[in-house]
C-alpha cells in the first residue's frame, strides 16, 4: 500500500513539473495577404506579417523559407520576449512572372506551433 501512495505522489510531482515548463507560443495577426494587382514594371513588393509571443518563454524563429526563389522572408534573429511583438517581412519579386501567384512561406520556431505557414497571393500585370 505504501508503494502505491509513493508512486502516486511521485507521479503527481512529475506531472506538476511537466506542466510548469515554460514554452513560447507564436500567434500571427494574419497569415494571408493578397497584393491584388501588381505592375511588373514597379518592381518588388513587400508585406510585413506581425506576430506576438503569447507564451511564457522567449520565442526563437529558427528558420523561415519560401517555396520559390522569387519570395524572400526576413525574420528577427534575436529572441522575442513573452508578450512582445515581432515581424516577418516578405518580399515578392514579380519580374518575369506575369499572371496570378500564390506563395507559401514556412516559419519554424522553438514554440507552439513549431511551424506556421504564411501565404501571399496576387496577380502580376506584365510590362506593356
UniProtKB/TrEMBL annotation:
Which InterPro entries does its entry note? DUF1573, Ig-like_fold
Q: Which residues form the signal peptide?
A: 1-20
Asked if Transit peptide is a keyword of the record, the answer is no
UniProt superkingdom? Bacteria
> Which keywords are on file for this protein?
Signal
| Listed name of the protein | Uncharacterized protein DUF1573
Record the organism. Coprobacter fastidiosus NSB1 = JCM 33896
At the highest ranks, the source species' classification is: Bacteria, Pseudomonadati, Bacteroidota, Bacteroidia, Bacteroidales
